[in-house]
Design brief:
binds pyridoxal-5'-phosphate; alpha/beta; Lyase, Ornithine Decarboxylase, Chain A, domain 1; 6-stranded parallel beta sheet; about 375 residues; TIM Barrel; 12 helices
Length: about 375
Amino acid sequence: MKLPYPAWAEVDLDRLHHNVDVIHAAAGVPLLPVIKANAYGHGANVLAIQLLRRQEVAGLCVWTIQEAEALRREGIKGRIVALGGVAPQEARLAVELCVEPVVGSVAQAQALAGVANRRKPASVHLKVDTGMARLGADRQDAFDAIAKISRMEGLSLAGLMTHFAFAGENRKGVREQVESFEDLLGALRGAGKNIPSCHAANTAGIFLHPEARFQLVRPGIGLYGIQEFAGPDVGLKPVLSLKARVSWIRDVSKGQTVSYGGIWKSPGKRRVAVVSLGYADGYSRLLSNRVHGIINGKRTKQIGVICMDVSMFDITRTGAGERDFMTLIGSDGAHCIGALDLAHVMGTISYEILCGIGNRVRRIYHRSGKVDRKLLMRVF
Ligand SMILES: Cc1ncc(COP(=O)(O)O)c(C=O)c1O
């Protein structure tokens, strides 16, 4: 199918569902998929609908109340947890939208209790800091907060959670965080308190730390098919491919430079493709002259500085022409370029590559190997 877009991201929904299967098989408990930041660039609206159809999915996690609001506007009715919490001025909106914000203090819970009531109750998740030193209450404060929240009218505690600082790299660090969380649970049990559903594990936590699975898990990057942690392949499949049209082809001669600053000088007669994807679309300038694309099933070097809107490739021996497209992430023929490959070149993580894919890049959804035309009609 010919697509009328300069650049597009193909999102394979069959692979998304495959990853849900793999993650749920490992976790053995219901999932709270993390679809913040536009589902790590994959398009939160469409993924929310797909994920909530799965019985393994108990609800969704976003970061902000505004992300939750956008989902509700799309008609999404399932449970939504707002991981980033809620500012006092957003409390009313959170309650109206039936979002479950994460709170880290009695004051934050009080702001919600101030607008919730018996007719419009609110549920919150209390976050405990066990070692990340970012958001969340200290253990003792959490113990006191639970008692106080349980007495607030219109407010109920739907979850008790923590977040790991080293899930992919440091088993000892995670063990210490789990122990700290378990200590709190033990103290609560000892005091005869009701303990709500507990959740702690992100993707790496699910696969590497069975002791961290509790009653719910919060997978993010694994849903999108990327194994960011070391060890045996767990069978996830990348969901997103990034592609762009060739907008121009030119022949250059020996010594000619290409793009700003002349960092690439042609070693001889070369054919150059100008591809319609640049750093404004998430193809970082830091990748300049250091990565490859795939065109016509052939791997080809990106050359010169990546511009805001376009990037150039040496397609001399590919036989490719203006009607072809370049794969920047994904596979074509025998070749494959992963978001992880780009991340390694930039010294970052695949999350940043995926979240950085810009708004001009049209998201196209595939099911059973075909473009889903119904989803294509929707504007994202
Ligand atoms: C609180 C919280 N839980 C879960 C996740 C999901 O993590 P991952 O994408 O590593 O699975 C994130 C992501 O940043 C998060 O902030």
